[in-house]
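Batch 3, record 17
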Amino acid sequence: MSSPLRRDDVAKVAKLARLTLSDAELDMFTEQLGHVLEHAEDIEALDLADVIPTAHPFGLVNVVRGDIVRPCLARDEVLAMAPDAEDGRFAVPRIMGEAR
Amino acid sequence: MRSAVEIARDVRGGQSSAEAELARSLAAIAARNDELNVFLHLDHQGALEAARRVDERLAKGEDVGALAGVPIALKDNLCQIGVPTTAASKILSGWRPPYSATVVERVLAAGAIAVGKTNLDEFAMGSSTENSAFGPTRNPHDPSRVPGGSSGGSAAAVAADMTPIALGSDTGGSIRQPAALCGVVGMKPTYGLVSRYGLIAFASSLDQIGPFANNVSDAALLLEVIAGHDPWDSTSLPEDSPSLLSHVDDGVAGKRIGLTRELVDGADDEVVAAVERAAAVLRAAGATIVELSVPEFRLGLSAYYLIAPAEASSNLARYDGVRYGVRVDAEDVAAMNEATRTAGFGAEVKRRIMLGTYALSAGYYDAYYGQALKVRTLMIDAFKRVYQDVDVLLGATAPSVAFSFGAKTDNPLAMYLSDVFTIPTNLAGDPAISVPFGRGEGDMPIGVQLLGPGRSEAELFAAARVLEVAGGAS
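Prediction for the assembled complex:
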């Protein structure tokens, strides 16, 4: 299946990825990403119906640690690096019309 | 500059001191950092305090460690507590990590002195450091050319004798390619051998931290220090650090080495010639050279440029202006997220986030990301098959010597092709090393690549050492 990337596709993907693109950027990315996807036609064309996908080189099983209390990062040190913090929490602009 | 092995020996033996070695390193940095833009941050005060602590401990007769007093440069995607860490992105400007990467703790515990953080392509996405938000690094051998990337700053630090060793990270070739272009040794270890805890994530199933050095022994020593299980990384292999330095002179007698067509096809003639000379040297040292072909390697580039962006699009979702880094204010939280990401990320990072988002999106997942994961299976099977016949594979690290600034910036696909020989290893999770071997156009260094199965680092260092001793002259 060949899918030439359209300008609308790039605009939609940018929205999903929370990126604002100018018209000139939309044109540029549509062309550049199109080239990469054209190159990927070599693997799109393969019949791999019987191949099992690999997401991780060693197929590791999940690792869990013991349920033991141990020191963690100091809250104040972490919040000191945040753009905004209030009352020991990360602060953000209003969500859906609430007053902050 | 003296080797890390020699510096540590002299500092431990009292013929030198950590403070004196640091002063030498800082003088070399002062001489060329403005010209080359190698370091994004220099930690003068922290380094001086650390050097004095090492010297005080030595004066008390304590054993300081295998890297006693050795200056080291850290790629700026490795967290060091309290020291600015940006991943060369505006979005992390001003951020100081509240913790250190495991590799940073290990090199410091071994007595190394961290002098500063080196430049890279933003979030390690690139092959030239031209994608750094803070300007490119220049190649110490010819400042009109790129140092390679993404770990271009770490490669240049070692090539310019600013530090004898450095740490980088390799997702699709980001240690080996700049090592080749800067004429130094660089290794991407087996996935899981080195903890990724504290490495700013790009593509988590591919990322691996590894060493840069001016010689094979120093690279082996540094890898020995950073390798070994870490409970803070759930993908860390369960075993202890392997013995590497004691095996660098093991040679290649009796080894079968595969000269791999797909790892030289398309490279410049002078690069192909260097690989052929390397094969002759290895044969003369007692190895059997087998010419072979692994057609699956040709599929690596396409699979990589779907898998890595897909993982990156997920990993970089965390930069939303809430918990760290910069924020661009807007009327509500969604608009703030978007304004922050739009202003904070550079063009290549946006490109990869969008490519990955597209490859994972409904309707395209099976055709792109799913298909790439199946190609990854083919790649792993191909490596397993070929390693039943040979011990090590030989090829080029990069298709050409270092290129000029701007040569590939308008054509991302051309830039991506810089990684065509290094990518297969990452997809398989196996180790590979680049070792300088000869010079090409403009008297620029050429790197030769040796690849092996998982946990074959000792054999790769031994083979690289044979090439290092031979010197690569035509």
